[in-house]
Amino acid sequence: MSFPTQHTVVRRFGSLPLITPICSSMDDVRRAIERTTEFATAMKPSSQTQAAKIDSLGDAVRAMDESTQQNSALVEQVAAAASMLHQQAEGLAADVGAFKF
Questions:
Q1: Are 13 and 19 in contact (CB under 8 A)?
Q2: In this structure, is residue 1 part of a structural domain?
Q3: Domain containing 31: what range?
């Protein structure tokens, strides 16, 4: 973005008493825009790095969730096997009790 210079404004509109402060204000705005652009440009690499790390963290959370679901399924299988073994043990105890004198 380019702003007209004070010389260009004076040449076009003549020497009005407000031209100098207006040109000064426009210069201030231009400098502020340049500083903002520099700041945003400087932030870009760190923002990209941060975004990559957040993606990595998301991948890790998804992997943990998958492991948790697998562990939950295994716990259910172990609980079912334990219940079946308990029933078999009770049945064996009843069978052995029939042979007691």
A1: yes
A2: no
A3: 6-98
